[in-house]
Each structure stands twice: as structure tokens, then as C-alpha cells.
């Protein structure tokens, strides 16, 4: 650039934002000074080269104009020198509706053609009539005015919506154009009646609903309402959500297999493919498959059966918080100054405030009078006076609700009631305790004297209370609700849509969170103090997992799916460590809707961390198992927690998920483990297994097969799915569990049986109990554990009214479990009805079916 006029070059490339940014950086590095006045002006507008050159020649003139005149001049220049005829026509139609200023506000940061081409169609479909502006018919003019308001609402909200729809990749302008294209003129009155034009997302959503609700889909929903009311209500809530993808909702009902195998490019590709919820319904071998369909899995979610095997039980807590805007913050600062002055010398402060023009004088003296009245008056005396004079006290224009106040007076029972009543009276009437006492209308408490004000410390307490009352009202009160959501709450499915993140309903990783019971969801919602709880808006969320702390980083889990890495990464003492280590509650992160979160923390940067800390301390107390557990939060996208201490991230989920934001080197520590926390261990013997035993089961499988036949190792994802699917199926079928383990004297797993209800592919009419694998720690294979587990599962089956009628099929290795079954079947009251030999990975197996002997 040597020898060039840098300022001239800079001024000529202002329309190219990327080039400008590079050029500014170059000049900064080379100590070249630039006048950035033009840049600051033009960077406010998205100008193409033609527009830029048209306006650039008028820059000096534009600089001298005020905002409104400048906008009009810019529009005038662009119409004349830069815009095509179509764009000018569309813009002028828009000007007629919302005026030049708002029309420019709508288009200035977007491609002119793409922002305006659908405007004529919008006016036609909404029924705007320019001739009606001059009509003598008032009803027509009112209708036209309402139409203009609706158009303005959706257009200006479009400019404020900066998000990108993750399913379609479209921005707000493109989504609006799509909605207008799909909008039918006959819908307009219904949209007006339901106020659907008031919020952009609601408008777009309702257009989508109206478009997609074909007669066939309506019939489908009507059938759900009749036959499956719980599912119908769940689906109805999803459909009504302002940003949920309806196609995904309808796919869940109409094509559940397709819905449950959705992918996700954000998630780990291997784990997402392995953990698609559809695979929970596809377990089995070449002859038998689990008797659990995709529709039944979705029903298990909605009917609460997944929640029954989830450790994160529903719980909620509400907190009040004052949002202070700039005006409120200024008031609080002024009040703080007054408070400090008051505490120095309360008597002098009261005297001074009475003679001053302080803007808080009336409020302070009125509240001080209230405190004097309540603290000095004898209760019965003031109560009788208030009730006897009720008709007079509630009179006057300044009393906002006389009937309510009179009811409050009639119901006075305590000093607090009196305080509430007189707080309302003194807002409207200038009544002094001095007058009431001296005119014998009320009596003072014993030991109180009007002439001599209270002791200094007591007065300070009164005035401190006064300032607390004033301060607490110096902003907008919000109710912040923190809760752990059950899986069958539709809000669990939509938390990604609410917080505008990448786990929206219908994404693959959200399906994993929804259908796998090792996950939970915590949500933080807000509403104004005068709003109903149904109006609360979720602004932040965390996916919960139950982890253990080990000497590996969570990102190393992918390697652990390779059999040869199991012993290397977990170590020979893994089983003991697993059952010795406490459970750790992990929030994958705290991700929120940024604009709402910034508003929430505007007065207190530590607010979110403080609420999470309070909530989880109380929540975990409700659980005997989790009380006192450590709680950590992943750092990925947790932009509101930087005040929390950090700990090394060695937290491993007890069952895998396809995506987590807790993958940084460190995590935030929300709560340390309590020193009194103890680990509950299972007693020696037979116990049911859950997904929380996934890692021990995986470890034992590797220990058994790694030397004998590594090709038989199925690995963590398969074993995890068997444990999970079998557990959910047992809840759905209301039967005893069919996954069972043997634990030694130290509470450590040393053998397991994995089973579920299945059907033979070529004989689907009969349900059977299918045992996928029976395995014992190789160091204990002659200790009788195998037989003990078989006896335990038989007892479980025979004590269950449904299971005891079903045949049992077992997949057995010829050298281990097969001889035990053949030798003991008859002793146990069963007969072998089939024995199918087959080869798997160069090893002989038997598929043995036994049935209860009939007498």
C-alpha cells in the first residue's frame, strides 16, 4: 500500500464489510491513522456497492440532517439512483402501511429484494385496502387500521429475530416469506380473533399448523384423542409450541421408526448412530427380537414408564427476584445515599426531610408515619377505630379498590393485617397518629409517648425497615422457577426450542436425551409476579447425567468402545473403584436464551450460579441416594457461571450419551461432596441390574471374552441398550425385571444375566422370555455363581403372574452355560423343547427353549 492515499481507499470500500475490517486491522498494525466517521455512519446500513456510491456523494449533506430527515433523504436517493423499479414499487407499498421510517428500519439490514418481494402478496392476503383509508365507513377504516398494525407487528419483529432455524437453515426474513406464501386469505379473521399476529413466532407457527393440518392428520389426532388421550395431550402441546417443528411431531406419530433414528451432525457420529432410540426396539439375534415396538417406546415416554427408571425425579422451587432498569438502579443509588445519611442521625434526618424538596420526601414521611402508627398504637384500639370508621376510610378517588379495602378492614386479625390496611389508607389520606391520639380516637401502647420519639436504636430499626420496603419496590419483580422435569413433560422435549440452542425437538441428540433414562433435564423459567405459572418462559436449561469420577477424561470414552482399550483405560481394579465411588450429578452446561438471560443477570452477574446452587442443595436432600453428592457443570456454552470454582474434569457418565458439553479440561464445581456422604453398596447375593451397572457389565464381558474369544465382545453400546430397553419394557409390561446380577461380599458385580421379552421372527404370535447372555467372572466360574443366578431368575419369573406362563429361550455357550441348563432344567421343573446349535465367531452356541412342565 506504499504511496497510496489510505483514507481515500478506506472511504471507497466501506460497502464491503469484510474488506473494511481487514483494512482497519492493517492500518492499526502499521500505525496508519484513519478518520472512521464515514465507517461509523455506513456500518449501520447493509448497503450494496450501487447504494453506497449513490449515498456517498451526499454524505456531507446527510451528516447535517436530523435522524428523520436523514432517513427520508436516504430513501429518496436510493429510490432515484440505486433501486430497481420492482424494489421501489414494493417499498412504496410498504411505506403506505407503516411509514418511511419503519419501512427503512425493516429493510436496511437485509437484501432489498428478498425483504420486499412478498409484500404485495402479504397486503392482498391480509386484506389491506388502500382505498379504504378514505372511506366514510368507520368499520372499514378500523379494520384497515388493524390490518396495518398486524403487518407492522410481524415485519418489525422479523428485524429483531436474529436466529437461524436449525432444521431449514432459514433466517427470520426467509421464514416470514415462507409463512406469507403458505398463508390463506380465509384465515385472516381467525388470526385476528386469536391475537396470532401479536408475536412473530406464534404467527409463523400457526401458519405452519394450518398448512399441515390436512384432513388425514386431523383424523389421526382425533383418533388419538379417543384412543390415547395422554399421547393426544402431549402431541397437542408440542404442536402449539411457537417454534417446534410440526413435521417432526407428525413424524413421531405417523412414522415412529423414522423419527427414532434421526441423526445429528452436532453429536459424536459413532455414538449417535449406536444410540438412536430406535435401536432400543431392535435388540436380538437372527432368530429373536425384543418385543418392544417404536410406538410402544414413544408411549412408554408419554405414560411415564421411562421416568420410573430415571434417577432424576421431578422437583421445583420458586425464587423472587427484582429486575432493576436504569431508572430503578438510579433510584436505589439515591436511596442508598439517603439511608447512609439517616443511619448517621435518624432524628436529624427526619427533621431535615420534612423541610426539604427531596423527591422521596412524601414517600419517606408517609411510610415513616405508617411505622409510627403500627408500632406505637395499641392494637385493639387501632383495630376498633379502623373498623368503626371503615366507610369513611375507604372513600375518596385515590382509593383504587374500595370494596377490596373494606373487606381487608373487616378481616383484621393481626398487627400485620393493620399494617396492610393502613398502607393503602395512607396512600390516599393524610392522617397522622398525633391527631388520632390527641383527639382520643386511638390509644398508645403502654410505655409509648408521642412527644418523645423512640430510643435511637429502635428508630434506626424502624427506618431500616422503611428503606427496605422502598427498595424492594424499586424494580420489576420476577418469579424464577427452577425445576427438574420428568421425561413425559412436553417441556422436556422442547427445552432446546425454548433456549434456541442446537438440541431442538426432532434432533437426534435430543431424542437420546428424551428416550434414555440416564438423562434428566433441569429448566429455569421466569414470569412476572402477576402472571400465571402457565405463562412462565423457560430461559435456561441443563441436561443432567449421573456420573462417576475416574482417572480418565470423558472424551476418552470413544476409545473405550474398542475391546482392547477396556482394561488399559479402566485398570484392573475398576470394578472395586466403580462401586466405591460416589455418584456425581453433572449438568452438561447451563445454556440459555441470550437476550432473556442478559436481562435476568443485568443487576447480578452471579444470579444464575446462586439459584443453581440453592436449588440443587435442596433438590438432592429429597433423595436418600444423592443427598450430599457432588454437583458439577460443563463449561461449554455456560456463559453465566464464570464466578464458580473449577475442578479437573474426570467425570464419566454411568451410561453413554451421544453429546455433552462437559468435555472441557475443567468443569465448574457447583457443590462439593459432603464429608458425611457414604456409598450404599448391595449386599452379597442376587439383585436386579439397571443402566447404572453398564460399566461393570461391560468390564466383566471384556474380562471373560478378551482372551477366550474377543470377537464375541459386543461392547458398551449394545450392553447398555439391553439393560435400558429391558428395564423400560419391564415397567411397560408391569413385570419383574429380567436383568439380574450377582454381587460379592464387597458389593461388586461378579456375574450377570441379561434378558427381555421377545418374539421369534417366524413365530411372532407367542411372546417368550429371552436370555441374551449369562456370564460369570472367570476367576469365580466354579464357585456356583452361575447356578445361583439361574435359580434367582427362575424365582423371579415364577413369582410373577405374567412371566411364569411364558416359555424361556436361552442363548448359551456350549462350554459354559449350556451344560448347566441341560443338566438342571428338569430339576427346576422345566423341559427342553428345542435345542438349536449354531456357530458364532468360530464358537459353538445353543439356543435352548424350555417350558414349565405340566402335571
Task: Describe the structure in brief.
The protein is α+β, with helices and mostly antiparallel strands and 855 residues long.
CA radius of gyration:
36 Å
Strand content: 15-25%
Helix content: 40-55%
Mean pLDDT: 88
**Major beta sheet, specifics?**
10 strands, mixed
pLDDT < 50 stretches: none
First-to-last CA distance: 102 Å
Question: Shape from CA axes?
Answer: globular
- The strand count comes to 18
Describe this structure in words.
- The chain is built from 39 helices and 18 strands.
- Strands 2, 3, 4, 5, 6, 7, 8, 9, 10 and 11 form a 10-stranded mixed β-sheet that branches. Strands 1, 12, 13, 14, 15, 16, 17 and 18 form an 8-stranded mixed β-sheet that branches.
- The mean pLDDT is 88.
- Helices cover 49% and strands 15% of the residues.
- 34% of the residues are buried.
- By secondary structure, the protein is of the alpha+beta class.
- Helix 32 crosses helix 36.
- The longest helix is centred in the N-terminal third of the chain and has 23 residues, at 85-107.
